[in-house]
Amino acid sequence: MSPAPSWTLPGDDDGPPRSLRSLPPEGSLNGLRSAGRALMATPAMDLVKPMITLLAIVNPLAIVPFFIHYTQGYTETQRKRTAWVSAFSAFVVIAISALLGLQLLAFFGISIASFQVGGGMLLLISSLNMLNAQPAESKSNEEEIRAAEIKASLGASIAVVPLTIPLLTGPATMSTMVIYADKTQHVWELAILVGYGVVVGLVTGVIFSLADPIARVLGKTGINVMTRLMGLILAALSVEVMADGLSTLFPALARTH
User: Does residue 103 form part of some domain?
Assistant: First the structure.
């Protein structure tokens, strides 16, 4: 009996068929898949962190008691106007910090790594305030509260000072926006960062507009619990920001053995 004919293509006398030769090894495919997943995951993580950090720092829930206290005697229209002016002012502070913060650092000759360490320490201090159920940006003393009460009683607006600055936004918020603005590589990423300011402003306006129902539902204890939870998240993020800055200033710290 004659042997079965061998079906081969020209030039395929040795080794597997050409179609199989063109395929990368299995290990390479796994590596490509892992690299693809990493590339898709990294931008999402980088874009989510600023939003979480901003919400944790601004934390309008913690400012609800101050808003109610300062706006006693206001009509419903005045309270809503104060709420939305304060929300818009918070957005302006966030947007300006994101767009012009790096230029200010360059003007003063401050490296972003040094700013990350200093800003991270500021965020950590703010998180400790929040863990004590205090606003992240400022602890209002009796004199400041009394001054705001007099200002409100005279009909002056308290939407910008003290509600927006320093209670809602301040050095910690500005530092956060500058640090994350440095991480952007495209215009659309910077636009998203500014868009987060819009989100924070809308959240602030809604929460201030519903201040009385929120205070009734959550109560002082519920607001304190939420503030402490945000403080814990902010503390973890602040350590990460400081670690990034320290690893740049001292490369030996970033080496793995």
Answer: yes
Judged against a pLDDT cut of 50, whether residue 42 lies above it is answered with no
Find where tokens 């972003």 sit: 112
Query: What is the arithmetic mean of pLDDT over 214-229?
Result: 92
Tell whether the model's pLDDT for residue 61 goes beyond 50.
yes
pLDDT of residue 38: 45
DSSP string, 147-201: HHHHHHHTT---IIIIIIIIIISSHHHHHHHHHHHHH--SHHHHHHHHHHHHHHH
175 contact partners, CB below 8 Å, separation of at least 6: 115, 118, 119, 122, 123
- Alpha-carbon distance of 23 to 14, in angstroms, equals 17
φ/ψ of residue 91, rounded to 5: -60, -45
90, 58, 211, 66: which is closest to 152 by C-alpha? 66
Examine residue 38 and state whether it is found in any structural domain, yes or no: no
Q: Give residue 223's domain range.
A: 46-248
Contact 90/208 with Cβ under 8 angstroms? no
Helix (H) or strand (E) run with residue 204 in it = helix 187-209
pLDDT tens, position by position, 142-185: 666 677 767 666 556 789 988 999 899 999 999 999 999 999 98
257 inside domain: no
Two structure tokens written together for 176: 């956060």
pTM value is: 0.77
Q: How far apart are CA 132 and CA 239, in angstroms?
A: 18
In a domain, 32, yes or no: no
Split into its structural domains, the chain has a count of: 1
3 state SS for 95-113: HHHHHHHHHHHHHHCCCHH
